[in-house]
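Our platform keeps sequence and structure together, in a single record for each protein. Such a record has a labelled line for the sequence and another for the backbone structure tokens. This encoding replaces a full spatial description with a residue-level series of whole-number codes. Below, we set out a record of this kind in full and without editing:
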Amino acid sequence: MRSVALAVLYTTARAVIVVRQAAPDELLRVARFRAAAFSSDGRTASPARAQAVHKLVEDRVARGSTLLCALASGEDAACLEEETEGDGWHPGLETSQPMKLFQSFFKSEPGATLDESLDDCRIVGVCDISRHEFDLPTHALAPDYALYLTALAVHPALRRRGVASSLLEAVDAHARREKLERVILHVEDDNDAAIAFYEAQDFVKVRVDKDLRQFGTALGLNPDIHYLFSREVVS
């Protein structure tokens, strides 16, 4: 049976955004789209690569990883039509073909769209969240240590319009359902804009101890140039 995806409506000062949690089967379709996006021609992936990506995502989904998508429609989405290709706002969404594929998973099944008003919806922001990193045997962090925010990205045309804040509200809601008390993330130390945004959202830079250093290293990050930020889940 197809999983029911969560949808929450956020009205910001300048945009009306619906944040929708992708269902597991949708995430697997997205994996195929991303595999194609990173292929040599940007349209197709070799069977071996597609299978490898599918297996990776299937494992992540089974361990609690998911994708939150911020969707806009009408006037809030119209400005995206004028954007040129290659803005690189999120891996796999740099050209029109992968974007169309990525968008299509909301509409590929009967009843898959949020509601009739969002038949013309566009994805304007995405947020990857996960927990499986805390199961790694390379550190002593407990599986219930936190919810990990892997990536957050917003389309350039809708930045500073509350999209990222709406996604973070949905992240907190997801953490509460998982009975987790904090959200953590890494930011490169020279990414001033991201650091300023997260600090404005009450994230605080964490002193990295031995376990947190091992945690970052296990993720392929350099603890010397990646800051770790943490925020208590907003109730």
In short: Confidence is low (pLDDT under 50) at residues 1-5, 93-99, 108-118.
